[in-house]
Amino acid sequence: MARIVMKFGGTSVADIDRIHNVARHVKRETDAGHEVAVVVSAMSGKTNELVGWVQSMARTAGSGTPFYDAREYDAIVASGEQVTSGLLAIALQSMGVDARSWQGWQIPVHTDNAHGAARILDIDGSEIVRRMGTGQVAVVAGFQGIGPDNRVATLGRGGSDTSAVAVAAAVKADRCDIYTDVDGVYTTDPRIEPRARRLPKISFEEMLEMASLGAKVLQVRSVELAMVHKVRTFVRSSFDDPDAPGMGDFENPPGTLICDEDEIVEQQVVTGIAYAKDEAQISLRRVADRPGVSAGIFGPLAEANINVDMIVQNISEDGSRTDMTFTVPSGDLDKALAVLAKVRDTVGFDVVQSEAGLVKVSVIGIGMRSHAGVAATAFKALAEKGINIRAITTSEIKISILIDGPYAELAVRTLHSVYGLDKQ
Ligand code: ASP
Ligand code: MG
After folding, report:
1. Residues 245-288: tens digit of each pLDDT
2. Which residues form the ACT domain (predicted)?
3. DSSP SS3 for 92
4. Of the ligands numbered here, which is closest to the C-alpha atom of 179?
């Protein structure tokens, strides 16, 4: 017998039939004797609809600027999860499974005061644990908690993944199963490379890189939390027949396990290829080469909430001037250029060149730590396809390469095959 947290995303609870199907997944686990807590999202599209209502109400009431109170935003958007938690509890009860819904405040899930993007501070899992011990399933509304102001607070879009991992940590679950509309984590995006393979296991660190780079299976914060608390997190499909053979296999269910690297016996050098679209490159020429210059450039960009990613600085030719290149999201390019225009005279640089519509392709694998030549392999493979590299950054477990947008798919496929990730 084990303790499992099962999380179901919006597409998995999109309508009454699907909620029934979710209940069958839950019943399978309780029938097997496991203690279960479930975390649910809102029905797919619901949160968007609620956010839309908030915005149009603010626009109608005010002077055309969609300003609204973040506490009321939370009161409204948290309601989607309240509905699905109640519906699932009813579905379970009708199947003879003892179940009870829980809103964030009832558990309670304590958060900070950052309404709309709150962080979980702690969860008191004792009452849920006690009830699970009596065979009752706790159906927890994801995405929400209660702030120090005693008001409902939501965790930011996609936040019910984080709720699930946090609940799993709080009740010391043996596993946190994230049921979604894909059946696991792949070596790359299967829409670009049909030969992509589902990974049986991936380490927390690698998954963090994949998620940060746009593999949208999990909210990035949930992966951070899983890594910190070592929550074995399992990504699997809710669309599989709940009672198909192997679905309830505790040791080897179908999907991808995100776990500590020590648990991964057969380590590959490269685990996956990720990509992030819509990057923009900004190059500053003849930047004064003296202390404080980087702070003078990147400080104001950070204050403007612009997320700077790759930063490359050249050695200066004459000891007084250097070149600097960095990337920002394409959508922030104009804002970034405006910020730079303001600091240009005080910091001192000459020409700004910029280009949007670029793509960052990344090679990820913890095996890189102990293998040489991984980067060289990528560069050679891309060169053979005539793909020009604009910038490169590396970390211990990642090589990121900035290229022109139209080459994105070719680059992903090329790298996927050169590291032997293609399906046999
Ligand atoms: N329903 C929320 C959203 O759409 C939270 C979640 O689904 O994870 O962002
Ligand atoms: Mg989600």
Report:
1. 999 998 888 999 999 999 998 778 999 999 999 999 999 998 98
2. 282-357, 363-424
3. helix
4. 2
Centre of ligand 2 from the C-alpha of residue 217, in Å:
7
Q: How far apart are CA 174 and CA 37, in angstroms?
A: 12
Q: How many CB atoms lie within 10 A of CB 141?
A: 31
Domain chopping of the chain, boundaries:
3-261, 272-418
Rounded (10°) angle between helices 70-77 and 46-61:
140
Q: Of all protein residues, whose CA lies closest to atom 6 belonging to ligand 1?
A: 158
Say which CATH superfamily domain 272-418 falls into.
VC0802-like (3.30.2130.10)
Hey, what amino acid is at 127? E
| pTM to 2 decimal places | 0.90
Report d(CA 115, CA 119) in Å as an integer: 9
CA distances from residue 72 to 27, 68, 111, 198, 293 in whole angstroms, order as listed: 36, 8, 16, 41, 42
Distance 43 CA to ligand 1 centre (A): 9
User: What stretches of 191-274 show up as alpha helix (H) in DSSP?
Assistant: 204-212, 220-229
Phi, psi at 288, each rounded to 5°:
-55, 135
Query: Mean pLDDT throughout 391-398?
Result: 93
CA-CA-CA-CA torsion sign (164, 168, 171, 175): positive
Task: Tell whether ligand 1 has an atom less than 6 A from the beta carbon of residue 80.
Answer: yes
Instruction: Please give the distance, rounded to the nearest whole angstrom, from the Cα atom of residue 118 to the centre of ligand 2.
Output: 16
Same fold, 3-261 and 272-418: no
CATH number, domain 3-261: 3.40.1160.10
